[in-house]
Amino acid sequence: MARLQLHDLQLARSGQTVLEHLDGSFQDGAITALIGANGAGKSTLISAIMGMLPPVAGRVECKVPRERCAWLPQQLALDLTFPMSVEELIMTGTWPSHGALKGYCAAHYRRGREIMGQLGISHLAHRQLGELSGGQRQRALIGRTLMQEAELLLLDEPFANVDGETVEVLMEVLRDMATAGATILVVLHDMEQLSRLADDVLLLASGHGRWVGTEALLDHHTGQPARAPRLPIDFSDLPHAGTA
Ligand SMILES: Nc1ncnc2c1ncn2[C@@H]1O[C@H](COP(=O)(O)OP(=O)(O)OP(=O)(O)O)[C@@H](O)[C@H]1O
């Protein structure tokens, strides 16, 4: 039984229904891409999964403990101007399970150094967050979720404003996390990235969800992504594997 499931979910914003009759399971140990046009309800669904938006009807069933759930909003939504170094940010990943006031032990610092090494940001350990590039900042933020040992990871456009090398590093880290069993849900607009990363696709359109096989998004002749790498995507003609 998947640890994250939607049961006839209905979500609204300001009294207006955004999504309804959403059903389905997110596979454990898999990466699901959440796609849809602007305003389709991707962030709304993520808010509901994180327990920040109560459903109008139906429910989100999440068996992952709260301290193992991580949510990485769009970079633009983050205020990272407060005084904190990369290492300090990564260490805060221990807070959900360990508490913010207990301090860190040697094992935490060791793990923090390992994570910075894996993400190629060891040399930035003492750099302030406000002095990082978009890609460096995103590596640090993913580092925090690794420190947290996240089992459910929700990411909203994690590769936006990020350099190509960082995209490669982050894709590898996300794949490793999924292989280790994490459930990963990622909002993506870039079809080439989607075709490389996603095991499953949940498409939101016209207030409903459809589970779409990743192969449906490829050009049948070339095997390459069928559309230009950025939105708008014409969602109306996508074959689908079932109604969500
Ligand atoms: N806080 C809010 N109050 C009222 N309406 C909202 C709020 N947040 C979103 N909405 C509305 O809910 C609908 C879904 O928005 P949502 O942000 O979930 O879409 P999205 O798919 O994430 O879009 P984008 O790709 O632009 O980020 C939109 O019509 C939006 O205007």
Automatic annotation (TrEMBL):
SMART domains: AAA (SM00382). Transmembrane segments: none annotated. Keywords: ATP-binding, Nucleotide-binding, Transport. Residues 4-231 form the ABC transporter domain. One of its GO terms (molecular function) is ATP hydrolysis activity. Pfam families: ABC_tran. Gene3D superfamilies: P-loop containing nucleotide triphosphate hydrolases. InterPro entries: AAA+_ATPase, ABC_transporter-like_ATP-bd, ABC_transporter-like_CS, Metal_Ion_Import_ABC, P-loop_NTPase. The keyword Transferase does not apply. Belongs to the ABC transporter superfamily. This is ABC-type transport system ATP-binding protein.
